[in-house]
Write a structure and sequence with these properties.
globular; P-loop_NTPase; ATP-binding; binds adenosine-5'-triphosphate; ABC transporter; ATP hydrolysis activity; single chain; Rossmann fold; 27% helix; 7 helices; four-stranded antiparallel β-sheet
Amino acid sequence: MAASEPVLSLRSAVASLGPRTVLRGIDLSVSRGEVVALLGANGSGKSTAVRTVIGQVPLTGGSLELFGTPFARFRAWHRIGYVPQRSTAAAGVPATVREIVSSGRLSRTKLRPMGRGDRAAVARALEVVGLAHRAGDSVNALSGGQHQRVLIARALAAEPELLIMDEPLAGVDLSAQDILADTLREQVARGTSVLLVLHELGPLAPLIDRAVLLRDGLVERVTDPERFHDPACHPHHDHDAEAAAAAVRTGLSLSDTDPGTHV
Ligand SMILES: Nc1ncnc2c1ncn2[C@@H]1O[C@H](COP(=O)(O)OP(=O)(O)OP(=O)(O)O)[C@@H](O)[C@H]1O
């Protein structure tokens, strides 16, 4: 693919969950090295949008290309790391932190045993999320926020070129948020592209190149940066508007500043 080609391109994407049409024709793209935040109220379709990208929710209309390849022909899943919305998927599973993080290498090792490079990538990922000292512990012994950090480490262990994270900061305390912001900054400096579903921009604000706002399954054009103060964008917490304002101050470009290219 050409350097300028998006790593992710959803065009006129339509998707349903049960009887409900959740995405009603959205365009969303991420260029190489770009960090894009997907914002919007509860139920606006953010998680569904990222789940279409990783194939968990099928498109019923429109198209999806990953690294310039139509979704139906895309096989290079090792190029994509995904952190699901905070889940307890591994809870109850008798696995250690290291085992869960190592599973992030599966897309690279296939069925081969892990080599030195794989083990180093796992160790690095554990280190950056600050859980190296818990590597041998059962994931069931972790708090919710620590669990979230394990899922982030699992995605990082694959050394992906596109990192997709659905509310990665949910339940993660402020000092760990700062660690994750540093981690992400490092990944971006290495050329990793990032798509983040966020409610709070928080310490990630300076990293974000562009924000896309969803409302009722459609991308909303934002003509006024003050729009990010609208509680409808950030329904969870009072300080969301403040965080969004910080993002605008730190150079966040809105989705309609570059029409036709990115959004
Ligand atoms: N399994 C399902 N069956 C039917 N409808 C669903 C299902 N899961 C989600 N929905 C609906 O789809 C819509 C979009 O949900 P989605 O999780 O994508 O929103 P979101 O923007 O990520 O919300 P949140 O901020 O609360 O995480 C919501 O109205 C939700 O109720």
